[in-house]
């Protein structure tokens, strides 16, 4: 493991990185929120089905 090479690579990436604009941040937050909501909804549906169908699946 070459530490000097790794640090150089990390510094290069950090120099290229920039803070997203408010519009980009807002869009990413909406998409992430929708994904969290959908996963929660699927989990709730599975829970509801398992609760109403005892001994089912």
SSE pattern: HH
Largest sheet features: none
Number of strands: 0
Beta percentage is under 5%
The N- and C-terminal alpha carbons lie at a distance of: 50 Å
What's the alpha carbon Rg, rounded to whole Å?
22 Å
Question: Mean pLDDT across all residues, rounded?
Answer: 89
- Structural class label: mainly alpha
Tally of separate helices = 2
Approximate helicity band: over 70%
- The general outline is elongated
Low-confidence parts, pLDDT < 50 over ≥5 residues?
none
Transmembrane segments: 31-53
Family: Belongs to the SecE/SEC61-gamma family.
InterPro entries: Prot_translocase_SecE_dom_sf, Translocase_Sec61-g, Translocase_SecE/Sec61-g
Subcellular location: Cell membrane; Endomembrane system
How would you explain this protein's 3D organization?
The longest helix has 31 residues, at 22-52. The mean pLDDT is 89. The radius of gyration is 22 Å and the shape is elongated. By secondary structure, the protein is mainly α. It has a domain at 20-57. Helices cover 79% and strands 0% of the residues. The chain contains 2 helices and no strands.
List the SSEs and their pairings.
Layout: H1 3-16, H2 22-52
What's the quick description here?
GO terms for molecular function: protein transmembrane transporter activity. The chain has 57 residues and is mainly α. 79% of the residues lie in helices and 0% in strands.
């Amino acid at each position: 493991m070459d530490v000097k090479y790794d640090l150089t690579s990390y510094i290069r990436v950090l120099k290229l990185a920039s803070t997203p604009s408010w519009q980009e941040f807002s869009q990413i937050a909406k998409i992430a929120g929708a994904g969290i909501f959908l996963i929660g909804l699927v989990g709730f549906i599975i829970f509801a089905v398992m609760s109403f169908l005892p001994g089912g699946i």
